[in-house]
Amino acid sequence: MKEEAPELYLENQLCFPLYAASRLTTKIYAPYLEELGITYPQYLVMLTLWQHGHQHVKEIGERLYLESNTLTPLLKRLEQKKLIRRVRSKTDERSVMISLTRAGDALKDEAKEIPGRIVESFNDSSINEQELSRFQRTLFKLLVILNKED
User: Fold this and answer.
1) How far apart are alpha carbons 110 and 126 in whole angstroms?
2) What is the pLDDT of residues 2-42, one digit of tens each?
3) Is residue 54 classed as helix, strand or coil in its secondary structure?
């Protein structure tokens, strides 16, 4: 007879619903982002640039909780798509400034409808907008806590 270990049951794990919800939510974004010609991680980079303007790679990484070695390939692909410009600092070669091109800035208008479409896709009587908003605030609190431990 196998030993009971409820602490190892899938439904008792915090990580599983976060992982599954993230994966399924990202899947909802896919057709909208395909229309824009970008991936979900590239969309996140674009969101930071649309909100904050030009930034150093390090700043974008901090906002997205990504390391430079993960972010650099994303930025290179966005540059190849002519959506961003990467300019290495003349005073510190390790520092790279990222800015939007005209095409990258113009993409913002096309992307504006995506958040509303995503919220509409959660249209279900078992959850309302207030619950989603509370959940989002809780997740941001969790991110801050987990980032302190990193």
Assistant:
1) 30
2) 778 889 999 999 999 999 999 999 999 999 999 999 999 99
3) coil
14: buried, middle or exposed (CB in 10 Å: 19+, 13-18, 0-12)?
Answer: exposed
- CA dist., res. 114 & res. 117, Å (int): 5
Both tokens of 150, joined, read 């990193």
What are the φ and ψ backbone dihedral angles of 128, each rounded to 5 degrees? Answer: -115, 175
How much is the pTM? 0.89
Fold observed for domain 13-115 = Arc Repressor Mutant, subunit A (1.10.10)
Show me where the domains of the chain are located: 13-115
CA dihedral (30, 36, 39, 41) positive or negative: negative
Question: Which residues fall within 8 angstroms of residue 89, CB to CB, at 6 or more apart?
Answer: 95, 96, 97
Query: Which amino acid is it at 68?
Result: S
Relative to beta strand 84-88, strand 55-56 is unpaired
Query: How confident is the model over 61-86, as pLDDT tens digits?
Result: 999 999 989 999 999 999 999 999 99
Rounded Cα distance, 143 and 113, in Å: 26
Tell me the CB-side half-sphere exposure of residue 85, using CA atoms within 13 A.
Answer: 10
Other Cβ atoms less than 10 A from the Cβ of 147: the count is: 10
